[in-house]
Structures are given as structure tokens and as C-alpha cells.
Specification:
Number of helices: 0
Distance between the termini: 39 Å
Strand content: 25-35%
Helix content: under 10%
Low-confidence stretches: none
Largest sheet: 4 strands, antiparallel
Structural class: mainly beta
Shape: elongated
Radius of gyration: 18 Å
Bound molecules: calcium ion
Mean pLDDT: 85
Number of strands: 4
Number of domains: 1
Order of helices and strands: EEEE
Length: 106
């Protein structure tokens, strides 16, 4: 049975009510986050304590029936921020070469 007529049977379709979405891939895993720590005055050495910005993130890539990326959901949490000069964080992905938008943030 293929409820959404997307070409993937319901028992293999992670999103069985959406024909444009069929599977997901998490990085690193669905229940784990990566940790990034930044030094604020790179490339100078500074105090080298890497506590000027500490964040965790995980990504969920939603793919269509052809296993091509459909959307990327990033979960980013700032864990610590020191008295630093970091004023923005830029994010880049091969998925964002085409149309992209920030759907929610806080
Ligand atoms: Ca389906
Ligand atoms: Ca589907």
C-alpha cells in the first residue's frame, strides 16, 4: 500500500501522507547532537580556551522518493557565550544553493 502515491510503500515511507517526502537522515543520530566550540579572535591564537561560543546542533535531512534532499532541518542550541566579539554565525549547506528559508528560530 502506498497511501500518498509517492512511489514508496507505507511500510518504508517515513512520511506516508506526503508524496514529496519519503525518508530522513540524521546527523549525527536522531537522539544525539554535535558540539562546536569557537575561539573569538581567530586566526590569532587568543587565550585558546574555546569558550567564546559553544553550541550543539543536529541536522535532519528530509529526502524524496528518489533519495534527493527536499529540506534540511537544523536544531542549534547555544550552550555558552563568553564576552566575545562574535556578532553573527553564518550557516552554509549544499542544500541552500537553491531556495531556502528560515522557518523557525528562537
Ligand atoms: Ca508513500
Ligand atoms: Ca511519503
Amino acid at each position: 500500500m502506498d497511501s500518498d502515491n509517492g512511489g514508496i510503500p507505507d511500510n518504508s515511507d517515513v512520511i506516508p501522507d506526503d508524496p514529496k517526502r519519503a525518508s530522513t537522515a540524521y546527523f549525527p543520530t536522531q537522539n544525539q547532537h554535535n558540539l562546536l566550540a569557537f575561539e573569538d579572535i581567530f586566526p590569532r591564537k587568543g587565550d585558546y580556551d574555546f569558550n567564546d561560543l559553544v553550541l550543539t546542533y543536529k541536522s535532519q535531512e528530509v529526502r524524496n522518493a528518489d533519495n534527493n534532499p527536499k529540506e534540511l532541518i537544523m536544531n542549534i542550541k547555544v550552550k555558552a557565550m563568553g564576552p566575545c566579539s562574535i556578532t553573527f554565525l553564518r550557516f552554509s549547506s549544499h542544500l541552500l544553493r537553491t531556495r531556502s528559508k528560515v522557518q523557525a528560530y528562537s
